[in-house]
Design a protein that fits this description.
Layout lengths: L1 E2 L12 H8 L2 E3 L18 E3 L6 H18 L2 E2 L17 E7 L9 H14 L6 E7 L3 E5 L1 H5 L3 H13 L10 H17 L9 E7 L19 E7 L6 E6 L10 H5 E10 L4 E7 L12 E4 L4 E8 L4 H7 L6 E5 L8 E3 L6 E9 L13 H7 L6 E8 L15 E5 L4 H12 L3 E5 L4 E3 L1 H6 L4 E3 L10 E4 L38 E6 L4 E8 L2 E6 L16 H10 L11 E2 L4 E2 L11 E4 L5 E4 L5 E2 L6 E7 L2 E8 L12 H6 L15 H16 L1 H39 L1
Parallel strand pairs: 5-6, 5-8, 8-9, 17-18, 17-19, 19-20, 20-26, 27-33
Antiparallel strand pairs: 1-4, 2-3, 6-7, 10-11, 11-14, 12-13, 12-15, 15-16, 21-22, 23-24, 24-25, 25-26, 28-31, 29-30, 29-32, 32-33
Helix pairs in contact: 2-15, 3-5
Length: 726
């Protein structure tokens, strides 16, 4: 048996105290019963010294309690045979988590081969008594061999399994979420300790293997408190070659209408570090083969800088068709040593065809009447390079119909329609459509009631003096969100001459007032119905009702309504690996599943209820196959992966990571290792708890016995006194 704090054993000397007290105990020399003391003078009793021990059991209980407490404070433990290795030397248990970078930047040169070799070497150094696990990470962390599984395997078998599983992996195309990966691994180590499987002060270490590039995201470490007993051991693998990358840029608002934007493409070329500064940009078709007749665009980018360059699009009709085919459109960067980030994939931006259906009494012969509503609806939608809107007008009494897979982006109802049309519009809204009902006259409201599933109600004309304006607007709603900025949120110049009084309660539960007049009456009410929505306006935009159609807010409002029905393109901006792609809600037959064809030809079937696609795990062109036709979208590498310059170690230290010291400085001290082993053994055995419990038990017994003896002596004296009195 050994002791973690042997000096506390000296506390056992306190056993001498009760022995001495028992030896020097002084008692009266004798007792003589006497009938009366009234004629005697009081005097102190004559005491006699005794040199022999009495009440041995009481003495033993007191001595045992003191001895047990001394042993408990000394923290005793038994050495286990498992702690002695074959060579007879003591081994220190350690918790080791091996974390390997598998992000896209590890595809450079022979980085991955060297990383696997280094990982295999570190795996061989793991001792049989160590707790060991292997993790990988890119934009998320993954467990290759967990602590729980590792603990159930034979020491040699677990190392072979870890090596085999790691060799079977390849770097992905995803970004580097270094911070979150470190948080996940440290949490995994803490979970093993919390489970109580191997308690004690066991050294814990995270070994990180990767290129440690500046493009690594470390945000998660800023909100994480790094444990003081976990060491981060960095094992970087560096690449000596230079690197440049190409990334697409979205044109600023309004640039898309510029003729130059139709004939050229804006890209950013970044040259992270190295000696090269001259590159070329070349259009390529299938399998990266350059297009015939296309001249490469030169690009001069000094090391450590980036440049925005406009690249002319392919000129010839056939060349343009080849470059923007639905198979492999791409722009290739030449002159770079590392080609993992030298290809920019592009999806053909097909022009969207949208339909706005107008149902009103002025649909027949008053198309060019500026006093009607339709006159302004036709002029509110302007064709753009990405979208063309067609306004279709019908009389309210005519049957409402459209192709099965191409519902209108927006339906505007001015007046009341018949019951069959109202039922058709209700189904349209339930399936995700947007219906705008303009109350241009007081009376019974049946169409909106049918769509909302509530009883019909009647509206009355509001009393308006000279005019009213909008007094309260919900700028947090998507309809008015484009006007939330201070330079756009002034609606006071729009005057209303007439409007109808609306009660939100008539539309049922869930109705929301989006705008109110200055008198407090609702101007626009929205009610969700199924997957779509119904909007009711208390006033129209004809000159007799208001100045809305003549304001700068009218066209954006109608455009926002039409695009809110899934009328936007499949994707906006540049998608990168790992992004979730929103799927269109319109133009799709809900009874048929949707299929996405990935760049490698893999087909992924999606349920009709799914609204996003999360399988963007490789760069290239993806194609969404729907009943309305194919819709391609491109996914590219994260631009941060091109920032391959080494990450400064001070960055991790500033974020709280406790880095391991250099090898020559961290040579383990044998005495310190022995103390750590002893602390671990004592922490697992915890014999001091049982010793304290035993001491408490002895003290309870001593207290009971002492009280028992005192009671016996008192009873004896009382009996003698009673005998003398009698």
């Amino acid at each position: 048996m050994s002791f973690l704090a042997p000096l506390y054993i000296l506390g056992g000397l306190a056993i001498a105290a009760p022995i001495i007290f028992h030896l020097i105990r002084r008692t009266p020399s004798g007792e003589v019963p006497f009938s009366s003391l009234m004629f005697l003078d009081p005097s102190p009793p004559r005491l006699s010294k005794r040199s022999r021990l009495d009440q041995i059991l009481l003495l033993l209980l007191r001595a045992a309690a003191l001895a047990l407490l001394a042993f408990a404070f000394a923290r005793p433990f038994l050495r286990a045979k498992a702690q002695v290795e074959a060579n007879g030397e003591t081994s220190t248990r350690e918790r080791i988590a091996l974390l390997v970078d598998t992000s896209a930047s590890m595809r450079r040169g022979d980085l991955w081969t060297r990383a696997k070799a280094l990982a295999s070497q570190l795996i061989d150094e793991v001792r049989p008594g160590d707790a060991f696990a292997v993790f990988t990470f890119d934009n998320g962390s993954r467990t290759v061999l967990g602590f729980e599984e590792s603990a159930t395997l034979d020491p040699r078998q677990r190392l072979e399994i870890a090596r085999t599983r790691l060799n079977a992996l390849q770097p992905s195309w995803a970004s580097t979420q270094l911070g979150q990966a470190l948080v996940d691994v440290v949490t995994a180590i803490n979970d093993v300790v919390d489970a109580g499987e191997r308690g004690g002060n066991v050294p814990r270490r995270v070994i990180l293997i990767g290129d440690l590039q500046q493009g690594s995201r470390t945000d998660a470490l800023g909100e994480f408190e790094w444990p003081s007993d976990v060491v981060l051991d960095l094992k970087p693998v560096a690449d000596d070659g230079s690197n440049a990358g190409i990334h697409g840029l979205a044109d600023a608002p309004g640039v898309a209408a510029d003729p130059e934007a139709e004939t050229s493409l804006r890209v950013r070329v970044s040259n992270d570090y190295g000696t090269r500064d001259s590159f070329t940009l070349t259009w390529a078709g299938e399998e990266g083969i350059p297009l015939k007749g296309e001249t490469p665009t030169p690009a001069y980018v000094p090391p450590g800088e980036s440049r925005v360059i406009r690249v002319p699009r392919p000129k010839g009709t056939q060349a343009r068709a080849d470059a923007f085919s639905k198979r492999s459109p791409r722009l290739v960067l030449g002159g770079d040593q590392r080609d993992f980030d030298n290809t920019l994939y592009l999806a053909e931006k097909s022009r969207e065809e949208a339909t706005v259906l107008y149902l009103g009494s002025d649909a027949d012969d008053k198309i060019d009447d500026p006093n009607g509503l339709l006159y302004y609806v036709r002029r509110a939608f302007v064709d753009t390079p990405r979208r063309r809107v067609k306004v279709v007008a019908q009389a309210p009494a005519s049957a409402v119909n459209w192709p099965p897979n191409t519902p209108p982006a927006l339906v505007i109802v001015a007046g009341e329609v018949g019951s069959p049309n109202a039922a058709r519009l209700r189904d349209y809204v339930q399936q995700g459509g947007t219906l705008l009902n303009v109350l241009n006259a007081p009376g019974k409201v049946e169409t909106s009631a049918t769509v909302a599933g509530v009883p019909p109600w009647t509206t009355t004309e509001a009393r308006v003096g000279r005019d009213v304006i909008l007094g309260e607007i919900a700028f947090d709603h998507p309809l008015f969100a484009p006007f939330a900025a201070p330079q756009f949120n002034d609606f006071t110049k729009i005057h209303f001459w007439k409007y109808r009084k609306l009660d939100p309660a008539k539309l049922g539960e869930g109705a929301r007032v989006l705008a109110k007049f200055e008198k407090g009456d609702p101007a626009i009410i929205e009610k969700s119905a199924g997957k779509g929505r119904l909007l009711v306006m208390a006033s129209g935009w004809s000159p007799a009702d208001s100045q809305l159609a003549r304001s700068s807010k009218f066209a954006p409002l109608l455009t926002s309504l039409s695009e809110g029905n899934g009328g936007t393109p499949l994707v906006e901006g540049n998608l990168v690996i790992g992004d979730r792609v929103p799927l269109p809600a319109s133009g799709v037959d809900p009874s048929k599943p949707r299929v996405i064809r990935k760049p490698d030809g893999t087909r992924v079937t999606l349920a009709s209820a799914e609204t996003t696609f999360a399988g963007t795990d490789q760069p290239g062109l993806y194609v969404l196959e729907t009943s309305a036709g194919d819709r391609p979208f491109a996914v590219n590498l994260d631009p941060l992966e091109s920032r391959v310059a080494p990450l400064h170690v001070e960055t991790l230290e500033q974020l709280g990571c406790r880095l391991a010291k250099p090898t020559r400085e961290q040579a383990p001290d044998p005495e310190q290792l022995r103390q750590l082993q002893n602390s671990e053994l004592e922490g697992r055995q915890k014999y001091w708890r049982w010793l304290v419990l035993a001491a408490i038990a002895f003290l309870i017994a001593e207290t009971w016995l002492s009280g028992r003896l005192s009671s016996t002596r008192s009873t004896t004296r009382t009996a003698h006194a009673e005998a003398m009195a009698s």
